[in-house]
TrEMBL record, chains A, B:
CDD domains: CAP_ED (cd00038). This is Crp/Fnr family transcriptional regulator. The keyword Cell membrane does not apply. Transmembrane segments: none annotated. SUPFAM superfamilies: cAMP-binding domain-like, Winged helix' DNA-binding domain. It comes from Terrihabitans rhizophilus. It comes from the Bacteria. Residues 152-226 form the HTH crp-type domain.
Length: 249, 249
DNA sequence: CGGCCACTTGAAGAGCGTCAACAAAAGTGG
DNA sequence: CCACTTTTGTTGACGCTCTTCAAGTGGCCG
C-alpha cells in the first residue's frame, strides 16, 4: 500500500453534491480536509473484518467488494463498491469492522481520519446528514440483496444485480449506453449471489443466449435494457438516486 | 389505528442511552417531544412500501416485520423489529419507503413527526449520531441476513435467526434464560429465511429433535445455547451489543 | 359444532451444488 | 518472443437440498 498526502476532496465533494447541496463554507471545510490517497492492487485487502480502523475510506477509482466469511469457509460478498462510495462510514460509529473490503481492480482510495470526519460533522449538520443518508442508501441496497437472494431464482437474481450495477455506475458517469466496466470473476459473482460458479456460468449463458447482455473481459453491456429490467425484476426506487438522476428507460 | 397524545419518550430515551450517553439537556429535549402512540392489531400494516411518511415510528411493545414484495407475488421479510427499534428512521432522509412495516402482534407504536425529529437532531449532534448509529446497526444486521440466506443451509440459517433474535431481545430485557416471545408463524419464518413453509417445518423438527430449541405458541426457548450458536454459526459481533461508546464531542 | 388457520406429512421433481476434467485466457520468467 | 504456470471459464454427469402439490391433522374462536 503506497500512500501520499493530498489536499482537496474533489471526488468526495462531487459525491456529497449528489446527496445534498453544499454551500461555500461546507465546500471550503471539505477542501481543507487533510487527506491521503492509497493505491491497492487487485485482491488486496483494504480493511479486514475485525479491524478497528481510525479512518474511513472513499473509493476514487476502481472497484471493491465487501465480504464476510462463514464457519464452513465459504465467503459471501455483501456489496460491491464503485467510485464515489464510502464503504466503511460505519466505522465512525461501530468500532469493529463487520466486513472485509477487498480491491477487485487497481484501486485508488481516499483515507479520511475519523478525527477529521468527526470535526467535519461537528462543523456542518448538513454534511452529517449527507453521510447518514449515504449509509441509509447502503442499507436499502443490502435489504434489496436479501430480497434478491432470498426470493429470486438464479437468472432473475443475476439480471437484477447487472441492472443495479449499471444503474449505480450510470449515476457516477461510469456507464455509457448501458455499458460499463464490471471487473468481477464468475467465482466472485457466485459469492455475491449465493450461487456456485458452475451455476453462474450457466446462468450467464442463458442471459447471453437471450441476447440480454454481453460480458467479456470485464466489460458488461445490457443490450435490451427494458427486457433485462423485466427479467431481473428490477425497479431502481430503492437506490434513491440523487435528484438530478435521469431515470433510465 | 387508534392514536393518543402522550408526553415523555421514556422507552426512546432508554434506547438512546444504549447508543450514547445522554446529558440532562438532551434528556429534557427528548422528554418534551410531542409524541403520539398508536396501536396496531396483528397483520395490520403500519407503513406501506411506497409511502412517503411525515413521521418516524418507534416500537414500544410488540413485534413487527419489514418486507418487500417481488414481481412474482412472493414476499421477503428483510427484518424483524422488537421493542426499542426505530424501524423507519430512514424515512427522515429517503422520501419513499422501500419496505412495508407490518404488526405481527398487537403492537404499540410511538409516532415522531419528522419535523420534531429534525429539530431534535439540530439541537443535539450527539442524538443525531445516536440515530445514525441505530441505522448503521440495522445495516449490519441486513448484511448478516445476506450472508445467512446466501451461504447457509436451512438448519444453520434458522438456528442463526433464533440466536440473533434471542440476543437482540435479551438486550432489551425481553429474553430470560434464552427464552423469549417470538410470535411468528412458520409461513412468515419461511418468508424471512427464503425457504418454503414445508421446509421450515422440517427444519424445525430437526432443531427440536436435536434438543436445541422448543418453540410453541410463540414462545421460543434455546435449550443448549452454546450448541445452538455453533449450529447456527452465530457470532453476535455484528449486533454491536456492547455499547462501545464512540466518543463524540 | 363448524370453519379457519397454522401446522404436519408424503411423494415427486426442479433447481442448484459438487466433482472432475478440460479449454481458454492471462500472467510470468527466461 | 515463446514456453510455462496459474487463473478463469466451460462442460457433463450425478445427486442432494429444497420446492411444489396435495391431503390431512389439530387447535382456536365465533
Amino acid at each position: 500500500m503506497v500512500t501520499s498526502f493530498v489536499h482537496g476532496a474533489g471526488p468526495l465533494i462531487r459525491k456529497l453534491e449528489r446527496l445534498i447541496r453544499l454551500d461555500d463554507d461546507e465546500r471550503r471545510a471539505l477542501d481543507q480536509l487533510p487527506l491521503r490517497v492509497a493505491t491497492f492492487d487487485p485482491g488486496q485487502e483494504i480493511v479486514r473484518q475485525g479491524d478497528k480502523p481510525q479512518q474511513c475510506v472513499a473509493v476514487l477509482e476502481g472497484f471493491c467488494s465487501a465480504s464476510k466469511i462463514v464457519g464452513d469457509g465459504g465467503r459471501q460478498i455483501v456489496s460491491f463498491h464503485i467510485p464515489g462510495d464510502i464503504p466503511d462510514l460505519q466505522s465512525l460509529h461501530v468500532a469493529e469492522m463487520d466486513v472485509s473490503l477487498t480491491a477487485l481492480t487497481q484501486t485508488r482510495i481516499l483515507l479520511i481520519q475519523h478525527e477529521d470526519a468527526r470535526r467535519l460533522c461537528a462543523q456542518s449538520l448538513r454534511i452529517t446528514h449527507a453521510f447518514w443518508r449515504e449509509t441509509l442508501i447502503a442499507g436499502a441496497i443490502a435489504k434489496e440483496w436479501v430480497v434478491n437472494i432470498g426470493q429470486r431464482d438464479a437468472l432473475t437474481r443475476v439480471a437484477h444485480l447487472f441492472c443495479e450495477t449499471i444503474a449505480r455506475l450510470d449515476v457516477v458517469g461510469l456507464a455509457d449506453d448501458y455499458r460499463c466496466h464490471f471487473p468481477v470473476t464468475q467465482e466472485k459473482l457466485g459469492e455475491a449471489m449465493g450461487l456456485s460458479t458452475v451455476h453462474i456460468n450457466r446462468t450467464l449463458q442463458e442471459l447471453r443466449g437471450r441476447g440480454l447482455i454481453s460480458w467479456e473481459r470485464g466489460v458488461l453491456e445490457a443490450h435490451r435494457w427494458e427486457d433485462l429490467q423485466q427479467v431481473g425484476d428490477f425497479d431502481p426506487g430503492y437506490l434513491s438516486l440523487a435528484p438530478d438522476w435521469v431515470v433510465l428507460r
